[in-house]
Write a structure and sequence with these properties.
GO molecular function, one term (chain A): ATP binding
CATH class of the domain at 106-283 in chain B: Mainly Alpha
Shape of chain A: elongated
Mean pLDDT of chain B: 79
Helix content of chain A: 25-40%
CATH topology of the domain at 106-283 in chain B: MetI-like fold
Order of helices and strands of chain A: EEEHEEEHHHEHEHEEHHEEEEEEEEEEH
Family (chain A): Belongs to the ABC transporter superfamily.
Number of helices of chain A: 9
Distance between the termini of chain A: 27 Å
Number of domains of chain A: 2
Low-confidence stretches of chain B: 1-34
Strand order of the largest sheet of chain B: 1-2
Oligomer: heterodimer
Low-confidence stretches of chain A: 354-369
Number of strands of chain A: 20
Largest interface: A-B, 26 and 20 residues
Keywords (chain A): ATP-binding, Cell inner membrane, Cell membrane, Membrane, Nucleotide-binding, Sugar transport, Translocase, Transport
CATH architecture of the largest domain in chain A: 3-Layer(aba) Sandwich
Pfam families (chain A): ABC_tran (PF00005), OB_MalK (PF17912)
Helix content of chain B: 55-70%
CATH superfamily of the domain at 106-283 in chain B: MetI-like
Radius of gyration of chain B: 23 Å
Distance between the termini of chain B: 32 Å
CATH superfamily of the largest domain in chain A: P-loop containing nucleotide triphosphate hydrolases
Protein name (chain A): Sn-glycerol 3-phosphate transport system ATP-binding protein
Order of helices and strands of chain B: HHEEHHHHHHHHHHH
CATH topology of the largest domain in chain A: Rossmann fold
Radius of gyration of chain A: 24 Å
Chain lengths: ~375, ~325
């Protein structure tokens, strides 16, 4: 177990393409960090540089106070779980687990004990004599996990390990990975493009875009105070509604529609306003509201997603299924629930109102301690 | 004589692990998933019609001559074609009692073992080295494969010229170390040249298959091995080679038959019109006795013996070696 310090790491390919641009992340011992972003954002490249499968062009990676830039992958004291499992097809499950230990000269008795322990933990004891091809996708993924566990490495690296599983299995494996990591307390770096996976697994999220870090933070902090429009639209499902508007005095204008902030705000004239679908509610009579023209409804059971337009701009509201949906809806939102972003850079503007949801949660946590 | 099956899957892409699929057909493994789409024919005769040309070729060029050979191996043929006498197993006992024949059999065994081993080993070495270099470099890969496009007889002729008494660079090179190579005169020198040229001719073929096999190994499996095992040599023996086993097994059979039969041309060029004390293999002996000595009966008996040897060898390979082969 060890801390991982990634300092100003860049990846520059032969053609001059910069896949990762001066990324720095400090990972505490035992922490579960999830790198999340769309494909091509450099998250896998970053992970592979930590693993030693890609050379580090610039910067340093330290694992437990040891710079590992020029150290062989096998010597880095890490274990990796691959997307397509990457099990050795010609070896039995037992040998797949034992292979890394054998190569390190671990005594036979200890190999047996460690394999047995990992197999018990992952409930793959009855498959130890089988070859990978006789296993299902979920079982193969467990074996891949087992191969990482038996090594007792300083850190686990996960490269989209659940992407090849079906939806139901993915959810249950997600839970197992989380529990296992908590139990073992091994520092983990996990790559995914699935924001839900990222939210549920991470101690801290690292949102990457175009090779750069957009935001690092705890899942709820990232969700409630996204640092940019990119993070706002990437984290959370449905994505946060982003509406371009202009501020005139205390009012926000979306084309012909107006939202009164009720108090002065020091914003530039042109801004992007972010609205979470679940923060919208049906306006009571006489309350100021946005009028939405309903296009279609997605029923999710516990709630329903109502998709429509406000002054020609797309808007999604998450409403209780009990509410009757008319062709147009009057929706209101508390001004302190609004997110404001710079219209040009997309960066978050400071909230001028009451503390945001996440800060309130933080305070409750502090109060609870 | 056998014809070496051309790797038809090679023509398009190099990525196809052809060998695995080639031999899987011979195995009755119900657990193997069938990826090929099952085709329904409207008429039950149609599939047989499609098979007919291949079956005809096999029948005309393999079964029929085989039956003929077995038949004539029991007869003593008149050299001028005036008739034949049934002699039972006399042709076989004559051959197997002959010291000369047994000597040639011994040489054939050594020759086959050496040619197979070195052509496989060098082909594999080159493929492993090339695989390390060419990743993603299609142009370089194509250039390497072009070697295979040189027609085997031309390659054989070029090999022969390397050992030419007057202009052969290898002869001059050996002379530099005080070794006076006399191909066609000295038994051991001739054997050496035969083996070198035979190996040399077969290397590109093995190279292509091994390279394709190597590229068929998933990158992530290699990467996993990279994290599990520090020593590159050990990684090769424990991960790469076992995954290459289907290709290697296929090549083992192909190379054995190559060394036994298809080296005929090399031997012929080297020992033709030369003094009798030269190494030859069993298949060349069949030719010599049959077409030079006009002893068709004895020659037929020899080819039947050869057929049995290949049959036994192939069964042995499938039973005892293929068991260790892992098909992915």
């Amino acid at each position: 177990m060890a801390a991982i310090n990634i300092t100003n790491v860049s990846k520059i390919y032969a053609g001059g393409v910069e896949a990762v641009k001066s990324v720095s992340i400090d990972i505490a011992d035992g922490e579960f960090i999830v790198l999340v972003g769309p494909s091509g954002c450099g998250k896998s490249t970053l992970l592979r540089m930590v693993a030693g499968l890609e050379a580090i062009s610039k910067g340093t990676v330290e694992i437990g106070d040891r710079v590992i830039n020029d150290i062989e992958p096998a010597e880095r004291d890490i274990a990796m779980v691959f997307q397509n499992y990457a099990l050795y097809p010609h070896m039995t499950v037992y040998n797949n687990l034992a292979y890394g230990l054998k190569n390190r000269g671990t005594p036979k008795a200890e190999i047996d004990a460690r394999v047995a322990e990992a197999a018990r933990m992952l409930e793959i004891e009855q498959y130890l004599t089988r070859k990978p091809r006789a296993l299902s996708g979920g079982q193969r993924q467990r074996v891949a996990m087992g191969r990482a566990i038996v090594r007792k490495p300083a850190a686990f690296l996960f490269d989209e390990p659940l992407s090849n599983l079906d939806a139901k299995l993915r959810v249950s494996m997600r839970g197992e990975i989380k529990q296992l990591q908590k139990r073992l307390g091994t520092t983990s770096l996990y790559v995914t493009h699935d924001q839900l996976e990222a939210m549920t697994l991470a101690d801290r999220l690292v949102v990457l875009n175009g090779g750069q870090i957009e935001q690092i933070g705890r899942p709820l902090d990232v969700y409630h105070t996204p640092a940019s429009t990119f993070v706002a639209s990437f984290i959370g499902s449905p994505a946060m509604n982003l509406l371009r508007g202009t501020r005139e005095g205390n009012q926000l204008h979306f084309g012909s529609q107006v939202l009164d902030l009720g108090r002065p705000a020091a914003f530039p004239g042109q801004i992007t306003v972010g609205i979470r679908a679940e923060d919208l509610r049906i306006a009571t009579t006489g309350e100021q509201a946005l009028t939405m023209k309903v296009d279609y409804i997605e029923e999710l059971g516990a709630q329903r997603l109502v998709h429509g337009t406000v002054d020609g701009k797309k808007l999604t509201a998450s409403l209780s299924p009990e509410i009757e949906i008319a062709e147009t809806l009057a929706l209101s939102i508390a001004p302190e629930r609004l997110h404001f972003f710079d219209a040009d850079t997309g960066k978050r503007l400071a909230q001028p109102f009451a503390p945001s949801e996440s800060r309130r949660v933080e305070r409750l946590e502090i109060a609870g301690v | 004589m056998t014809n070496t099956p051309l790797p038809s899957t090679m023509s398009g892409t190099l990525a196809a692990p052809a060998a695995g699929g080639f031999f899987r057909r011979f195995r009755s493994a119900p657990s193997e998933p069938h990826f090929a789409k099952r085709v329904q024919f409207n008429s039950p005769l149609l599939p047989y019609l499609f098979l007919a040309p291949q079956m005809a070729i096999i029948f005309i060029f393999f079964y029929w001559p085989s039956v003929q050979a077995i038949q004539s191996s029991f007869y003593l043929e008149d050299p001028f074609g005036f008739g034949s006498t049934f002699v039972g197993f006399a042709n076989y006992t004559d051959v197997l009692k002959s010291g000369e024949y047994l000597g040639i059999a011994r040489f054939t065994a050594v020759f086959t073992a050496l040619v197979t081993f070195f052509s496989l080993a060098i082909g594999l070495l080159l493929a492993v080295k090339a695989d390390g270099v060419i990743k993603g470099n299609a142009t370089y890969k194509t250039l390497l494969i072009w070697v295979y496009a040189i027609a085997p007889p031309v390659a054989g002729l070029m090999g022969m010229m390397l050992f030419d008494q007057h202009i052969g660079p290898l002869v001059k090179f050996a002379a530099f170390f005080g070794w006076d190579i006399k191909v066609g005169l000295d038994y051991n020198d001739t054997a050496f040249a035969m083996i070198v040229v035979s190996v040399w001719k077969q290397i590109p073929y093995n190279f292509i298959f091994f390279l394709s096999g190597l590229q068929g190994i998933p990158v992530s499996v290699r990467e996993a091995a990279l994290m599990d095992c520090r020593s590159g040599f050990r990684r090769f023996w424990t991960v790469t080679l076992p995954l290459l086993a289907p290709t290697a097994f296929f090549l083992l059979i192909i190379n054995t038959t190559y060394a036994l039969f298809d080296t005929f041309g090399v031997i012929d060029v080297m020992v033709k019109d030369k003094a009798a004390n030269n190494p030859i293999t069993l298949v060349y002996k069949v030719y010599m006795d049959g077409f030079r000595g006009n002893d068709l009966g004895g020659s037929s008996a020899q080819s039947v013996i050869l057929m049995i040897i290949v049959f036994v060898l192939t069964i042995f390979q499938f039973r005892f070696i293929e068991r260790r082969v892992h098909y992915n």
